[in-house]
Amino acid sequence: MAQNSSSSVLLTFEADRAAWSSAAWTPLTVPDEAAPDATRILGWCKSSIPYLPSQQRPLPLQTLDVWVPARNATSSTAPPEPSSLPVPSCEDQEKVLVWIVYIHGGAWRDPTIEADSFGPAAKELLKRFTPATSRSSSKNVLAGLASLNYRLSPHPNHPAPDRPDRNVRHPEHLRDVLTGLSFLQRVIFSSTPTENIEFILTGHSCGATLSFQSIMSPLTRFSLPPNLSLCKKPMAIVGFNGLYDLAGFIHKPPKGWEGHVPPYEEFTRGAFGDDERVWRAVCPASAEGDWLGEWLEEKKGAKVVLGISKQDSLVPREQMVVMRECLEREKEKGRGVEVRVVEGDWGDHDEVWQSGWGMAGVLGDVVEEL
């Protein structure tokens, strides 16, 4: 029995390494301020990394993208080896290496929005935290960024009956998110010689919902297998234009938002089925029970940032309000969660990630404040 267990661990490690090495590092370049006609390497990128063990055939949407800062790289610097994970040196033992992991939106079903949608924000964050521009007073170092793909529910405007990765329902979206997070953590912890690592989990729209679902005791609440348990939970969750109470919106929309109810109900049924009890159970602002307990037991002083664009025409501000009220009720019970609301002029719903600058500004502040 012990021998089989050991072989299983070794196989998983080899499978992880093979999956990680299957994607090459490519340079992310920006204009060089010192030489207007030249470029410099800002970071290194890996795209479409499969996060399932090799013996389980990964589907096209079961992948993730990664960006890491390029340190002391010139335009002629060769990319790192595909099997490597470049990590910053951390001689100062007080400094913390911070990873940001992003989950895209799209109402659990839009195939036109994928992991690479985090690219504009990732680029802005790498600019902010390059060694030449990072604030010397910061105790934290941006180690890297990742963005997850996950299987989707069917979309009536993009039918794909032969695509099993575009015809699933809850909890399969969350299963993939937890699988991707677990894979990423295994790779990071095996490659980084320090215990001073923290994660920020962030998402846009339904990606914000999935971010919270990942810490809502998902193994018991959503009947997911124990191998999806995260070895390290996020220190902060940052939601942008998030969906936090679908049943509440559908049954009692804010004034002026009544016309949004039919499409909301359509994608909610598509993602979660027809049982409205499930809608309430899966959304963080309407779920019953002590779903914060497991997270806060591990992460004392955890932080939640709720970002909302003032120009958002698809998600009402009231979704942020109901989530803030839910978390503040927990604070009244003595829960150690800090809640902050950030309202920005970031444009319409998808412009938040399309431009990336507002998203990067909020996330960059959280990195430095952890």
UniProtKB/TrEMBL annotation:
The active site is at 205 (nucleophile), 312, 349. It catalyses: N-formyl-L-kynurenine + H2O = L-kynurenine + formate + H(+). The keyword Hydrolase applies. Transmembrane segments: none annotated. The keyword Hydrolase applies. One of its GO terms (biological process) is 'de novo' NAD+ biosynthetic process from L-tryptophan. Its EC number is 3.5.1.9. Pathway: Amino-acid degradation; L-tryptophan degradation via kynurenine pathway; L-kynurenine from L-tryptophan: step 2/2. A motif (HGGXW) lies at residues 104-108. GO terms for molecular function: arylformamidase activity. Keywords: Hydrolase, Tryptophan catabolism. Catalyzes the hydrolysis of N-formyl-L-kynurenine to L-kynurenine, the second step in the kynurenine pathway of tryptophan degradation. Kynurenine may be further oxidized to nicotinic acid, NAD(H) and NADP(H). Required for elimination of toxic metabolites. Homodimer. Belongs to the kynurenine formamidase family. The main chain amide nitrogen atoms of the second glycine and its adjacent residue in the HGGXW motif define the oxyanion hole, and stabilize the oxyanion that forms during the nucleophilic attack by the catalytic serine during substrate cleavage. This is Kynurenine formamidase.
